[in-house]
What does this fold into?
Amino acid sequence: MREDMVVDEASEDAVAQARARALSSPLRLRVLRLCAFESRTNKELAELLGVNPGTMLHHVRTLTQTGFLAADAERAGVQGAREIPYRATGLSWRTPIPGASGVLVETFLQQIQGVDPDEIDTTWLGLKLNAAHRDELGRRLAELAQEFKDRGPDADGETYSLFTALHPDLNPPASGGADG
It folds into this structure.
């Protein structure tokens, strides 16, 4: 193997690890959500998420350095203060992050705090699928999500969050029971 290929693979691995670490924080995932459709400054993000601006700056820098956030043009804030708004780049969409399920669940739980339970549309369905049908379901859900992602935001739309989880059901099988 050529030496430059080893360096490239090591560099790619380092980037992948840095990105995995960046997405390992529910707070950073919430920052990406807040910056998905409009640019927000460090100060705005800190206020919206109830954290210290210095703490938020660390998280914003981490997301910027790993390519998940990009700075928009500098603007003048109140009293002429220099502000840099950030927007999510979309890089996090479908980025494979090993072991991220726990972080995603925690982020989801944080996101729905304070939301009226009647405004959360949930579905819980037990299925019994062979490997081919499980793969088909996963593929079709991913295709549908990608289709809506590719459409881009509706100018007159409201913001929503979509969280799905397809996982093995660890409940013991009932003898001839129904799904639930």
Observations:
- Strands lie at 40-41, 69-71, 75-76, 82-83, 85-88.
- The two ends are 53 Å apart (CA to CA).
- Residues 131-151 form the longest helix (21 residues).
- The chain is about 45% helix and 5% strand.
